[in-house]
Write a structure and sequence with these properties.
Elements lengths: L2 E3 L4 H9 L5 E2 L6 H12 L4 H15 L12 E12 L2 E3 L5 H11 L3 E13 L8 E12 L5 H9 L20 E5 L2 H5 L3 H10 L10
Parallel strand pairs: 1-2, 1-3
Antiparallel strand pairs: 3-4, 3-5, 5-6, 6-7
Length: about 210
């Protein structure tokens, strides 16, 4: 059973490989900012769980006809998105060093919640129309209180926090600065593996069916 990952995230790919799944990578190219603006114009401000669920769904749906050469998708499509909620604000990727540094100076000794959205489409050719299920999983992250400015500067200079939600990882250089996690650690990395299992079961298969 083939799994198509509508994401180029190295972290999500690593999580799937951790459980012996080698997905087919299909970039989604969703204009996330435009999608959020349109959704909020229609329905008002989105909460963090609503935002990641929306973007995960749009990413999965965007690749329905995305294979090169006219090849049809025959399998399951997985879309994902993550956002970090801290002090009532939603933090995506900081992109800029100064933004990442400012966030880390606020994080010291405090906690926030990482929300991970998931959307799975059963796109087996013989089963059209295609059912889909989604879920949002959250985990609380506690940061060490004694992180120095020098440590923050060194971490930001590494470049790692610039292109990840919330400006941190738990499976990379930021791991020593994380005091505790309440919830599935994989949720913070970018995709909840327990949620992946649940979505597969809801669609009538198991994660083991995706293994080569």
């Amino acid at each position: 059973m083939r799994l198509y990952l509508a994401s180029t995230s190295p972290a999500r790919l690593a999580l799937l490989r951790q459980i012996s799944i080698e997905p087919t990578i299909v970039p989604s190219f969703v204009d996330e900012d435009a999608a959020v603006v349109a959704a909020e114009a229609a329905n008002g401000p989105l909460s963090a769980p609503e935002l990641v669920c929306l973007l995960a769904r749009l990413k999965a749906e965007a690749v329905l006809e995305a294979l090169p050469g006219g090849e049809r998708i025959d399998g399951f499509i997985l879309g994902g998105d993550s956002a970090f909620e801290f002090d009532g604000a939603i933090y995506g990727k900081p992109h800029l060093p100064d933004v990442a540094r400012e966030r880390w100076q606020r994080y010291r000794g405090r906690s926030g919640v990482l929300h991970s959205g998931h959307w799975m489409i059963d796109h087996r050719i013989a089963d059209s129309p295609f059912p889909a299920v989604g879920a949002v999983t959250s985990a609380r992250v506690e940061f060490a209180a004694d992180i120095s400015d020098a440590e923050i500067d060194s971490y930001v200079a590494s470049g790692e926090p610039l292109e990840v939600a919330g400006a941190f990882t738990i499976d990379g250089l930021a791991a020593p600065f994380i005091s505790s996690i309440t919830g599935a650690p994989s949720t913070v990395i970018g995709m909840s593996l327990p949620t992946l299992r649940d979505l597969a079961v809801r669609l009538g298969v198991t994660v083991g069916d995706f293994r080569a």
